[in-house]
Design brief:
This protein has about 650 residues and is α/β, with parallel strands linked by helices. It has 20 helices and 23 strands.
Length: about 650
């Protein structure tokens, strides 16, 4: 059946249901024997009432709901529609009652209020009922087809007995889907949950058998060969503990996606996967104010630099969720731009996706892009980030991280963009590396432009991002696949970590919350030892700790044992957001920032020591890296706060 025919048939069914409900309401009101004059009124009023009711249904979008998957959300929308048209009919009835004395014709529109009340109930039940019936029939048909195919299929199609860990909302959704979709090959035999009040209850036909400490025993008693973690919002420590219990039972657990992975808000059981490193490090998600994000993105033009990179590409996906009118992708790597452009066209077909091959260091090209598209919101994610690589190529670090950021910030100011959000790094705090120092200079320059611009400039500092290109996790995975050794620089090396979706969502939130000149940092929890990360990856690989060695290679030039997310001078103050703090930085000498940036341009082609000296003039807290690793003060737990600078005389943006 074509889509047009299906829509037409649904419209006919809705009109018939509304007609039947309206007529039945009058029959019930008069005990199936309405007076003769009332029968005439029914035939006169009915077509207008039914047409009005159907218009209300369409205005609320009920006609777009899939009958096959109708649920509570759709039923609530239908209830609202029934309430609205009932209120409208009652108002019309009272209006006709007032006019019938002067204009006898309106007497034909005066119908009993009791009949209208009955119509509210019957029409709601009818519209909801036909959809529910369609869903039930569809599920039964699918189940019967699956059973028929299973009966003629080889034994390998037998459903796997699976224990579900987590009897919350996500667990309920999983149990419901597994019951409705036998073709997934999983049979839920029971729930395991640490909430004692749930033990002994039944959720969608699946019993809650006990607590996680009983996992091994319960799996054995109920012949469960698989364990599925059905908790979308649970800390990594809990997942780590459950995984350890599964290993003791000789079972490799699987998991449903976390909240950060469920971009559309829906749970898709085809995305069940093995437990990954990101799950072991999972933290409580930051609550986003999506309304404030939509306010500055929806229906407007957004531009992302570095759109083909790890952060940039995920940022594009997150921006596309908020339905901008136009999304401009700025990227100098042709292949990366091609891939993200193709992906976004499928992900957001209603958004105009514009790919632009451009290098942020090219002033004229960047200005041309801004002139053509006039972006409202700019997200600057293009940067060089590898510490050892930038130590060997200091001029390129300055060119891309400092002057690339300068070009984008200046263009945003000149073209009157509403907001620019720049991605920075925790390595910009008390930097020991050229990469970190160049990012700190970029922060200072953006703050200097913010002091004189109508554009709102916000900077976001991040720790390490799991799985980004060239980061520690992909490197470790490659080393493990080759049989080792896994190389770790120092046994005490620690880093803050977040997932790529977390980082991208923080960027969007910063654009809605930050005041111009602010530096925002996420509450990233506790730092993680790199050697522990390596051990987790070795364990997850299934190779076993004895098969792969860990080798300590020594701290590389520019590296620190511990990263920091804020300087000692950035005093945090609370704001209205529970996880955002405002840090007051020392007064910026904006003329010195401008002169320092000009000096960097002159020395960018000089030797490494000259570049370091020039950077230290702008960033006096920059530290000289030691030849041997020294003992460093551990970073304390970071909070999401805003570093807000106080300004001296402002520099005129270039």
């Amino acid at each position: 059946m074509s889509r047009r025919v299906a829509r037409l048939s649904q419209m006919v069914v809705d009109l018939l249901v509304l007609t039947f409900a309206f007529a039945l309401a009058f029959l019930i009101r008069f005990d199936w024997r309405p007076p003769a004059d009332m029968v005439g009124r029914i035939f006169l009023v009915l077509p207008y009432a039914v047409l009005f009711e159907y218009v209300v249904l369409r205005m609320l979008g009920v006609h777009r709901f899939s009958w096959r998957y109708v649920g509570l959300r759709e039923s609530v929308r239908i209830l609202i529609a029934a309430g609205l048209w009932s209120v409208g009919l009652v108002i019309a009835r009272l209006f006709f009652g007032e006019l019938q004395g002067q204009y006898p014709f309106f007497r034909h529109g005066v119908v009993p209020l009791g009949a209208l009340a009955m119509n509210f109930v019957l029409s709601f039940l009818g519209i909801t009922g036909v959809r529910a019936a369609r869903r039930v029939l569809g599920e039964r048909r699918d189940a019967s087809e699956t059973m028929r195919s299973n009966s003629i299929a080889p034994r390998s199609r037998t459903r796997v007995r699976t224990m579900l860990v987590g009897a919350g909302q996500a667990g309920f959704m999983v149990a419901r889907e597994l019951g409705a979709r036998p073709e997934l090959g999983l049979e839920a035999v029971g729930f395991i949950d640490d909430d004692e009040t749930k033990v002994g209850s039944v959720i969608h036909g699946v019993p809650v058998l006990g607590r996680t400490t009983d996992l091994a025993r319960l799996c054995q008693e109920h012949d469960a060969s698989d364990v599925l973690i059905t908790m979308a919002n649970v800390p990594g420590s809990a997942i780590r503990r459950i995984r350890r219990l599964c290993e003791e039972a000789g079972i490799t657990p699987k998991i449903i996606p976390g909240l950060y992975e469920i971009v559309g808000g829906d749970l898709n059981l085809t995305r069940i996967r093995d437990v990954a490193l990101e799950d072991l490090l999972r933290r409580e998600p930051v609550q986003l104010d999506e309304a404030s994000i939509a306010e500055y993105i929806s229906g407007r033009t957004a531009l992302v630099t570095g759109a083909g990179g790890s952060i940039g590409s995920e940022l594009c996906r997150q921006v596309a969720r908020f339905a901008p009118r136009q999304l401009v992708l700025v990227e100098q790597a042709e292949n990366a731009l091609f891939e993200i452009h193709r992906e976004l066209r499928a992900l957001a077909p209603d958004v105009e996706i514009v790919p632009c091959i451009a290098d942020v260091t090219d002033v004229e090209r960047i200005d041309g892009v801004f002139t053509r598209f006039r972006p409202d919101a700019v997200f600057h994610a293009a940067a060089h980030k590898h510490v050892p690589m930038m130590e060997a190529n200091p001029g390129e670090a300055i060119k891309n991280n400092v002057f690339g950021s300068k070009n984008v910030a200046d263009a945003a100011h000149r073209h009157g963009c509403d907001v620019l959000v720049m991605v920075s790094t925790d390595k910009a705090v008390n930097p020991t590396s050229i990469m970190g120092a160049t990012k700190r200079v970029a922060e200072l320059y953006v703050q200097s432009v913010a002091a004189r611009s109508e554009t709102r400039f916000v900077t976001v500092r991040f720790g390490n991002v799991l799985g980004s290109n060239g980061s520690v996790v992909p490197i470790f995975k490659q080393q493990i696949s080759r049989g080792g050794p896994v190389t770790v620089t120092h046994p005490d090396m620690q880093r803050y970590f977040m997932t790529i979706p977390e980082a991208s969502q923080l960027i969007l939130q910063a654009g809605s919350l930050g005041t111009s000149g602010d530096i925002m940092v996420l509450d990233m929890g506790e730092p993680v030892k790199i050697v522990d990360l390596a051990r987790d990856l070795i364990s997850l690989s299934g190779v076993g700790g004895e098969g792969v060695e860990i080798e300590f290679t020594g701290v590389r030039p520019g590296e620190k044992l511990f990263e920091e997310l804020a300087t000692d001078a950035e005093h945090a103050e609370k704001t209205r957001h529970p996880k955002i703090f405002v840090g007051r930085t020392p007064r910026l000498d904006l003329d010195r920032v401008r002169r320092g940036v000009e000096h960097l341009e002159r020395v960018s082609t000089a030797d490494r020591n000259s570049v370091r000296d020039a950077l230290r003039e702008l960033v006096p807290e920059m530290q000289q890296p030691a030849d041997e690793p020294t003992e460093a003060k551990p970073a304390t737990k970071a909070r999401l706060f805003v570093a807000r600078a106080t300004h001296g005389p402002a520099a005129e943006p270039a």
